[in-house]
Amino acid sequence: MTLRDCKANVYRLLLMLCVSAAGNAVHAAATCTAAATGPVFGVYNPLNASPTLANGTVSVTCTWTGGGSTTVNVVSSYTAGNSGSYASRFMLSGVNRLNYNLYYDAAFTQIRGDGTGGSQTGGATLVVSSGTRTDSASSVIYGRIPAGQNAVPGSYLDTITMIVTY
């Protein structure tokens, strides 16, 4: 899937998350697929003292295609989006910005990224064979918009590409 294949309705705040496979989608004796849904934050209230939170999901499934048992090491990384920075991602509505970020953990300490700029990549090890024909892994994407931003009303959007290598 490429960025031009991503389609979504724009809500008041929407984060589009697209999946791009890097490398070969067929691994020895397995075929793998990945899917992701980014957090849809809904309406942001700049007067709310609490941050706005939303979750998304990412999953990878590998299916045995024959031969012996195979181990598939999956690594996911994420682009920085509009901001070009993992530490300070933002959505845009025209020229207006709204800061947010994506995390691996509910404590909002591990930023999803490519391993640079304070960000981390994700990973999973899947094993498929004639006895275990499919194996999958999934993860919650934790999204957070900090409270107290002086946001202009509008529809804010950012597009993040998740790159899965295996």
Give the topology, please.
Layout: E1 13-22, E2 26-27, E3 30-37, E4 52-64, E5 70-78, E6 90-93, E7 96-99, E8 101-103, E9 111-112, E10 119-120, E11 122-128, E12 134-145, E13 156-165
Parallel strand pairs: 1-13, 9-10
Antiparallel strand pairs: 2-3, 3-4, 4-12, 5-11, 5-13, 6-7, 8-12
Structural account:
The chain has one domain (3-165): Immunoglobulin-like. The protein is built from no helices and 13 strands. The protein has strands at residues 13-22, 26-27, 30-37, 52-64, 70-78, 90-93, 96-99, 101-103, 111-112, 119-120, 122-128, 134-145, 156-165. A five-stranded antiparallel β-sheet has the order 2-3-4-12-8, with no helix packed on it. Residues 1-14 and 21-27 have low confidence and may be disordered.
Quick take:
The protein is mainly beta and 166 residues long.
